């Protein structure tokens, strides 16, 4: 890509002097300035974004950990008491790497999923029943009664069905 910039004469003199001092061509100098500017800007935004995500994850772990009350970690307090030290307040960044983290929402989430699955099944079953009752005749559906099914089993295979099976065999 080629970009053309009109620079005022006084700035051009300063730029050329700077290039001579650094012993770099003006083109390379401008390219290095552009690289520096965009890398600096990209680095700033990615660091702040990363720290924002880290802080959010740490706060979430403190809030939903089974062993945390928001101010102290029960496991750390217990170990501090056993060592006869004063319990220290909870540091959210420790919670990010805590091997004992247990999410207290998991059990509730599983119960909700089971309830939703059960309700969905019941709704689907009722919907199918309504469709059969309302539109069964139009669709040509005729449910077999248990007596008809038993008659078919007792009747067995007809001669025509045997012939058709032998021909296709």
How would you describe the oligomerization state of the chains in this entry? single chain
State the order of secondary-structure elements, H for helix, E for strand: HHHHHHH
| Helicity range | over 70%
Note the overall shape: flat
Strand fraction band? under 5%
> Strand tally, please?
0
Can you count the helices?
7
Q: Please tell me how large the radius of gyration is.
A: 38 Å
Largest sheet, described in full?
none
Look at the structure and give the mean pLDDT. Answer: 79
Which regions have little confidence, pLDDT < 50, spanning 5+ residues? Answer: none
Structural class: mainly alpha
CA-CA gap between termini: 74 Å
What would a concise description of this structure say?
The protein is an all-alpha fold. Helices cover 72% and strands 0% of the residues. It is built from seven helices and no strands.
Keywords for this entry:
mainly alpha; 7 helices; 72% helix; flat
Written overview of the protein:
Helix content is 72%, strand content 0%. The chain is built from 7 helices and no strands. It is flat, with a radius of gyration of 38 Å.
């Amino acid at each position: 890509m080629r970009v053309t910039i009109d620079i005022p004469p006084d700035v051009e003199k300063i730029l050329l002097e700077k290039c001579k001092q650094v012993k770099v061509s003006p083109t390379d100098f401008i390219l290095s300035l552009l690289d520096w500017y965009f890398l600096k800007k990209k680095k700033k935004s990615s660091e702040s974004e990363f720290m924002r995500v880290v802080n959010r994850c740490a706060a979430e772990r403190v809030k939903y950990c089974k062993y945390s009350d928001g101010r102290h970690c029960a496991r750390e307090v217990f170990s501090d008491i056993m060592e006869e030290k004063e319990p220290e307040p909870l540091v959210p960044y420790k919670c990010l790497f805590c091997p004992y983290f247990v999410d207290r929402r998991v059990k509730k989430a599983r119960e909700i999923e089971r309830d939703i699955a059960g309700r969905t099944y019941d709704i689907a079953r009722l919907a199918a029943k309504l469709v059969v009752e309302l539109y069964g005749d139009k669709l040509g559906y005729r449910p077999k009664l248990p007596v008809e099914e038993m008659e078919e089993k007792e009747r067995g295979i007809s001669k025509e069905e045997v012939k058709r099976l032998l021909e296709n065999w």
